[in-house]
Amino acid sequence: MGRRRSASVRGLASNIIGALLVLAGVGLVAMTSRALLNYRAAATRHGGELINLGTDAQPEAGQHGYMARIVATPRVVEAPRDPEFNLRVNTPVLTRRVEMFQWREVRIGDGVHYELDWVDRPLDASRFREPAGHTNPASFPISGRQFDAGLVQVGGFKLGPVLLHALPGSELALPDPKSLPENLAASFSRQGNYLVTSSHPGDPRLGDVRVSWEEVPLQEVTVVGRLDGDRLVAATDAADGRGYDVQVGDVPVLDMFPDLPEPPEFVAGARVLAVLLAALGAFVLLSRQRTRRDALLALGLGGLSVGIVASVLWIGGDSRTLGGWLAVALLSFLLTVWRLRRHR
């Protein structure tokens, strides 16, 4: 009687342990799948699933369409040039700024006074309260423009126009009077970071023009964008209305997109462990029947239980992942049927 009771207790304990192991495997794959689905759903708002390519990454097969994070200092392959002033600068974006020395109206409360200053747009003196004696030139002889580099790369990827213009920072570029065309060399002289038309640069007069250039500095940046072959572009279909981000330095993804949850780690390992736990639980449950102590049968049952649960969770999600779990469930089912027939 005591031996029967002891055997019954051991059998019950084995059933409980086996069932708990199967549940642990199923629970692990469910938790991992749910965390990954939540992360991907949040990532979709910013353009889709993101892969971290790290520093100075190069294009590889199978990356097309993913969002990617790359850390690198942009490399200018084809520098921009201002053809009118014959100025070429090693920068992603070169901007010409033109200002004219003009009258401007300054209002303080009910009072008004006028002063001459550098302004980057024509000021219509006819709109002044006291236009007499404060007439400004009607237009600028030259206008401001922006010049983009023909090719800029981060790592091995070419930057698309949106990301190119998103590169942060600005600093003055030094003009070179020696490179000026003859028609402009007669009119402009250098004063610090500017080219000016003033006869006396330190004492400008009404209508004098000064020109300066701003360049985007070459510095380490973190770029997030969509991979399009060997190009990095903005994801135009992103729900956040941007589909990209560019920040100075080596910036983690979660600092760039604070609304993203923590991505699950060791996903592949967790999936394998889930199948092994469920298989071990099935083996413990089968061990009460000596004729069924079959590791392959236990593996089939464990893979089948985990594969079915994971497949259900991925319905409507990533089709590639769903197909993978359906394949696991099908192979596990075939393995289970084969081993059961062998035992018969």
Describe this structure in words.
This protein has 344 residues and is α+β, with helices and mostly antiparallel strands. The chain has three domains: 109 residues, no CATH class; 64 residues, no CATH class; 141 residues, no CATH class. It is built from seven helices and 17 strands. The strands form three sheets. Strands 1, 2, 3, 9, 10, 15, 16 and 17 form an eight-stranded mixed beta sheet that branches. Strands 6, 7, 8, 11, 12, 13 and 14 form a seven-stranded antiparallel beta sheet that branches. The protein has a two-stranded antiparallel sheet with strand order 4-5. β9 and β10 form a beta hairpin. α1 packs parallel to α6, α5 packs across α6 and α6 runs antiparallel to α7. The longest helix is centred in the N-terminal third of the chain and has 43 residues. This is TMEM43 family protein. InterPro entries: TMEM43_fam (IPR012430). It is found in: Endomembrane system; Endoplasmic reticulum membrane. Its main location: membrane.
The portion of residues forming beta strands comes to 25-35%
How many domains?
3
> In DSSP terms, counting alpha (H) and pi (I) runs of 4 or more, how many helices?
7
| Largest sheet properties | 8 strands, mixed
Helix content: 25-40%
Mean pLDDT: 89
* Rg from alpha-carbon coordinates: 35 Å
Helix-and-strand structural type: alpha+beta
Task: Give the key terms.
single chain; 344 residues; alpha+beta; 3 domains; 8-stranded mixed sheet; 7-stranded antiparallel sheet; 7 helices; 17 strands
